[in-house]
């Protein structure tokens, strides 16, 4: 069952078409992330669904109710949606309490109770209710924005790059708090982001967009390990590429002979993730397989390291080593081998 559906959406800005017949289905109870580079049309699509941008063609359905279509354009406030903007967009002249309850009727007897519920839900202490937004941290402001979006108990919540303005220290903790609050409220979520790690960790469905079209939709695991095309593969994370030759489900390259699920034949670009590459010291006894190369440099991140290697045939590769693994030194001779199947794209 879908909670949100967009069909054949065509939209633009002036004479420029931004969305080219986009179809999107968001399952009920899911968290879906639209992932794509800046300018790909993901925010325009979100604004079309919210009712802030009128498309040139298409249909939008929320909770089995048409909200946009032929001769129909329901106002944003009547679509049953919650919306969190990129930087929260709180009203600076209102208190936290008044921001959160802005969409509730003044005379509603449950208004105070709902305020307390929402503060608890998003992990904010109740004493912040009387403060102004400028007295809160960036992460706290985003939690207030989420509480405001949830106040009227929407079926669907739209998130527009909700964590991009936060520094790295706040981003992870705020993201976790937001995810927990949304799960507790039981809403369907549609988020747009350009951050691959954010999409992979936050969502249970990822939709990859580029140039106003959807390239692929699926679970984070499926989209990451079996990308539909070269653009999707490169956008979802670091990619190692070498030239190879494919035949009958096997491909030969400087890294050896590998299995591939691709039907491509002949000259191909072989693509794989850095974590699929295993490095050994070339001096290690018993090492007879793999491609020989020299370590050029290492990018160390604490939780892992990316080791860049120049293979003897002139190819450049990078291997990701987990925390605790021995990181080879610059200039050290190594062998590189591959685990798992690889992707291939015709040249």
Automatic annotation (TrEMBL):
Keywords: ATP-binding, Cell membrane, Hydrolase, Ion transport, Iron, Iron transport, Membrane, Nucleotide-binding, Transport. GO terms for molecular function: ABC-type ferric iron transporter activity; ABC-type quaternary ammonium compound transporting activity; ATP binding; ATP hydrolysis activity. It comes from the Bacteria. Its EC number is 7.6.2.9. InterPro entries: AAA+_ATPase, ABC_SmlMolc_Importer, ABC_transporter-like_ATP-bd, ABC_transporter-like_CS, ABC_transpr_FbpC, Mo/tungstate-bd_C_term_dom, P-loop_NTPase, Transp-assoc_OB_typ2. Pfam families: ABC_tran (PF00005), TOBE_2 (PF08402). The keyword Oxidoreductase does not apply. This is ABC-type quaternary amine transporter.
